[in-house]
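## retry 2 of 3
previous attempt timed out at serialization; input unchanged, resubmitting
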Amino acid sequence: MKILHEKVEGIYGYRRMRLNINRKFGQNFNHKRIYRLMNVAGIQSVIRRKKKRYKRTNPQHVADNILNREFKAEKPNEKWVTDVSEFKYGTSKKAYLSAILDLYDGSIVSYVLGHSNNNKLVFKTFDQATNLLDGEHPLIHSDRGFQYTSHGFKRRVDEVEMTHSMSRVGKCIDNGPMESFWGTLKCEKYYLHKYGTFEELSKAIDEYIRFYNYERYQERLNGLSPVEYRTKAA
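## retry succeeded, writing output
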């Protein structure tokens, strides 16, 4: 457990530690035992910090909250959620990460890190994701940020025959899974280090999202990683 704790830079709590230990040794240790042994060894997960800012916009297009917090999907590419989050590097520089998450397995379908929080960032993320589709027409849910309420985003959604759903004003819980991913990424990677350059931040995000998709085992996915769960469905 100490070796694993050091390898993942302390991001595992007792639940995820149990998943990894049981999988590695082919055992079924009780979570209480893992919790007790972590305490004995002085192992503790990092503490999550949350910060959310809101920006007032004049929407060009508004959609209803069709998703309505129904976050469970029966198959891949049925329901997507998306958002943009801010990251800092250097002394006072900012970067913005746009991502799309599939509610079926929680995998990150596409993501783009940029210097500006603008339409181009969101449109590129959307285009990357839709280029991977094979005849599917997912519902895509977002907040009411200016990128998602723009005519340009609506045009892209219509072109690929997808349905757009939007959170209600000031209700970040309507996009809960995406908010949860931001918290996880920042807690398990971003807050653990200082990033002097955009390139360092970009490399760290690339590494984490690959880890998240391929190696981060989850109880709700029967102990599998998102990609393993997705592959099993296929």
